[in-house]
Specification:
The complex is a heterodimer. Chain A is mainly alpha-helical. Chain A has a single domain, classed as MetI-like (MetI-like fold, Orthogonal Bundle). Chain A has 13 helices and no strands. Chain A starts with a helix and ends with a helix. Chain B is mostly helical. Chain B has three domains: 258 residues, MetI-like fold (Orthogonal Bundle); 53 residues, no CATH class; 74 residues, no CATH class. Chain B is built from 16 helices and six strands. The longest helix of chain B has 37 residues. The chains are: A mainly alpha, B mainly alpha.
């Protein structure tokens, strides 16, 4: 148990360092803008507006937030200090709401949509890949390529097509949002029904785009395993195929868990833009409106939130992997000695 | 090299991917040359549907050929929208005393016959508003007009500047499409600016491929350099580089992409700059895989021999390491090109794509279709071909990659 704690302590420490670097990038990149970033931001945001008092107020707030009169390390300490208090600044496009408030109201929607979609897509993809490797023939030659093609459509592209077909042509799905616009969130059956009907289309879009990529990886891994010596030996011993397959697929699954962690960032990125197409009130949509309104504090808050979510997801995957894979357990034991 | 190419073309997946990719590439290069339009030219107007458009003035001036075909049925069909058919059915059931089961709204002739037999504006039509009654009588009149045929007179200006009837056009006169002097063909309709979709699409495919290639080359070059150095040198250099690589694998690259693209600002974001930004954020996984390949090569005999012979570091890397990872790097490049194209589309959808008025990319086209709510207008031609192009390019590159993978990893072979 001691090795276990030590191993994960190290990993969590590593993720904390990564988080600090991510926060630093979030802080630094906007400050590398040519010229005076505050002036650029204000003039870009104000556009054709001629309200001088508003411009001055915003300018003042930006200057305060950026702390431009201080040195970069000092600025960073102030930035982190504010961050630790949960202070992400005040949104300009939705004044006077705070960025933290806007993000906390949208992060739940994103989690509720993307987490199940990625997990279901991953499971179905692995299932399809395993079947394709074992049965070959039709599944490998027809079904798998179809899903591979679908997974090459960017999630937001598939989102537009799904919306067009199911919402506008067939009229069997709502055209966007998380619930009917004439409803208020409550615990009635009617409201939950509306939630589910608005959830279905984005959910299936994300699942469909996930399946193919996961299936192709699982197929390769399963073929490797099916050709391994232990499979041949087991067959030679007369162990039933059904029993061997359980071992084969369990072994093939392990690298797939790492694969999930590796592709998490890309998947989340595509899904966030799909969220925007479905007008789903999650982080993706918030980020889009922040970019459109040149609301810099809100955009910065969104990117930070997304990074933190992906980092946590990666850490969880890594911990799960350590629990499942005996080789990692062995490594933990080794570090104990 | 020749041998490897020959091997690659023996894989059916690689060949299929190569053919698909070549088709897109050839389309992108040659269509804009032969297209009568400029990609940015606003020929028509917002969301014209695909088809051939003939000049009305030229059509009436062209030679007429009489045909013995009764045009009334086609006219009726064109006059009767699905809503009007539904309306007629409702009326017939409510006031005409017709059994609902006897009405087939798809059968135009039978429906109109039923209508003629039962409809009369003198019917009391109880329960209908007067405006509804009027709309039914208008419908009846338009049907009568469609049945009797429309005679059209053509007036032209004479030498005195007066309008003079020059011709009566019967509804059985036809004009051969080839005889019309001015026609415009929009194979994929027009986009929101009224530009020819196909010309714009092929131009966008070319620009997107260029962006993907530049981004892919930059990412592969950075990844290869870092992977080679980390894997070959080992020790402290490896530790630092691996630490960096791992960090940037976990921090989602599109977040950094968004931050940089946003910081560069609208004015500085040309297509080439966007490609560079994508390239410098996409290298980590290439570096990771190159490093692990190099580590397995580092202690091979031929590398040790080279070291003993006193060859310099660049010499060893170029001659003893690189040839062994070359096939792998090509595969990584293919995937980087594909993800570069997707990254551009994603950035553009968020409004952070290339800002230019002289050319277009696939992402920009999708963004415009989305901004102008093409899907709400039913203008499928404004977004489905674009999405399909992205998918086909990405699919073909992935197929090529899978095909190559099967050649270089013999365990994955089909038989």
């Amino acid at each position: 148990m001691k090795g276990f704690a030590k191993y994960y302590g190290k990993r969590i420490g590593w993720y904390l360092i990564t988080l600090v670097i991510a926060i630093f990038l979030n802080f630094l990149l906007p400050r590398l803008m040519p010229g005076n970033p505050v002036q650029t931001l204000v003039s870009e945001m104000m556009g054709s507006s001629t309200n001088a008092t508003a411009a001055e107020k915003i300018m003042q707030q930006y200057t305060e937030q950026f702390g431009l009169d201080k040195s970069i390390p000092e600025q960073f300490i102030i930035y982190v200090g504010k961050l630790l208090q949960g202070d992400l600044g005040i949104s300009f496009s939705q004044f006077p709401r705070s960025v933290g408030d806007i993000i906390s109201s949208s992060v739940g929607w994103t989690l509720a949509l993307q987490l199940p979609a990625i997990i279901v897509g991953w499971i179905l993809g692995n299932f399809l890949g395993a079947i394709a490797a074992y049965i070959r023939k039709g599944v490998d030659k027809v079904v798998l390529p179809i899903f591979m093609f679908i997974s090459n459509i960017p999630a937001f592209g598939l989102a537009i097509v799904m919306l067009f077909v199911f919402s506008l042509q067939l009229k069997i799905a709502p055209s966007g949002g998380a619930y009917a616009p004439d409803m208020f969130p409550n615990f009635s059956l009617e409201f939950i029904g509306s939630l589910i009907s608005h959830f279905a289309l984005p959910f299936f879009t994300m699942v469909l785009t996930t399946i193919g990529g996961q299936a192709i990886g699982m197929r390769s891994m399963s073929i490797y395993e099916l050709n391994a010596d232990y499979v041949k030996y087991s067959r030679f011993l007369g162990i039933k195929d059904r029993k061997i397959i359980v071992y084969v697929f369990r072994n093939a699954m392990l690298p797939q868990i790492t694969g999930l962690a590796m592709s998490l960032g890309t998947m989340v990125g595509g899904n966030l833009v799909a969220e925007m197409i479905f007008n789903y009130p999650g982080i993706g949509n918030t980020m889009f409106s922040a970019i459109g309104a040149r609301d810099y504090p809100l955009l910065s808050g969104c990117t930070l939130m997304i990074t933190i979510m992906v980092l946590i997801a990666n850490l969880v995957v890594e911990i799960l992997y350590g629990i499942i894979d005996p080789r990692v357990k062995a490594a933990q034991q080794e570090s104990e000695n | 090299m020749k041998h490897q190419l020959k091997q690659a073309f023996s894989s059916s997946k690689f060949v299929l991917g190569f053919v698909l990719f070549s088709i897109m590439l050839l389309l992108a290069i040659f269509y804009p040359i032969f297209s009568p339009f400029d990609p940015m030219e606003m020929v028509g107007s917002i969301f014209y549907p695909p088809g051939t458009y003939v000049s009305v003035s030229d059509t009436v001036q062209a030679t007429y050929n009489g045909f013995n075909i009764d045009p009334s049925e086609a006219h009726l069909k064109a006059a009767l929208s699905p809503e009007n058919r539904e309306k007629m059915k409702n009326w017939l059931v409510r006031f005409g005393g017709v059994n609902e089961a006897d009405i087939d709204i798809e059968d135009t002739v039978a429906l109109v016959d039923l209508w003629d037999a039962h409809y009369s504006s003198d019917n009391p039509q109880e329960g209908l508003l007067s405006s509804e009654k009027k709309s039914y009588s208008r419908l009846d009149k338009s049907l009568a007009k469609a049945k009797t045929g429309i005679k059209t007179a053509l007036y032209t200006e004479n030498s005195d500047g007066e309008m003079e009837e020059s011709l009566i056009i019967s509804d059985r006169d036809y004009v051969r499409v080839n005889d019309v002097a001015n026609t415009v063909t929009l194979p994929l309709g027009a986009d929101n600016f009224g530009a020819d979709m196909l010309t714009k699409l092929t131009n966008s495919i070319r620009v997107s491929l260029q962006i993907g290639l530049v981004a892919g080359l930059i990412a592969t070059l950075i990844g290869l350099t870092i992977g080679l150095l980390a894997g070959f040198l080992g020790g402290l250099v490896d530790n630092i580089l691996t630490f960096l690589t791992n960090i940037f694998t976990v921090i989602p690259s599109f977040v950094i992409l968004i931050l940089i693209a946003n910081s560069v600002g609208q004015a500085g974001r040309g297509p080439f700059v966007v490609a560079m930004i994508i390239g410098v954020t996409a290298w980590p996984w290439t570096a990771r895989s190159v490093r692990s390949q190099v580590i397995s090569l580092r202690n091979r005999d031929h590398v040790n021999l080279s070291k003993l012979s006193g060859h310099s570091l660049p010499h060893i890397i170029l001659n003893d390491i690189l040839p062994y990872v070359a096939s792998y790097v090509v595969m990584a490049l293919i995937l980087q090109v594909s993800s570069g194209i997707l990254a551009e589309a994603q950035l553009s959808m968020l409004g952070l794509g290339p800002s230019t008025t002289t050319t277009t990319t696939l992402g920009m086209m999708m963004n415009w279709a989305q901004q102008y709510t093409a899907h709400l207008s039913g203008a499928w031609w404004a977004f489905i071909p674009v999405i399909l192009s992205v998918a086909i390019i990405s699919f073909s590159l992935n197929l090529m990659n899978t095909g190559l993978d099967q050649i270089f990893n013999p365990q994955l072979r089909e038989d």
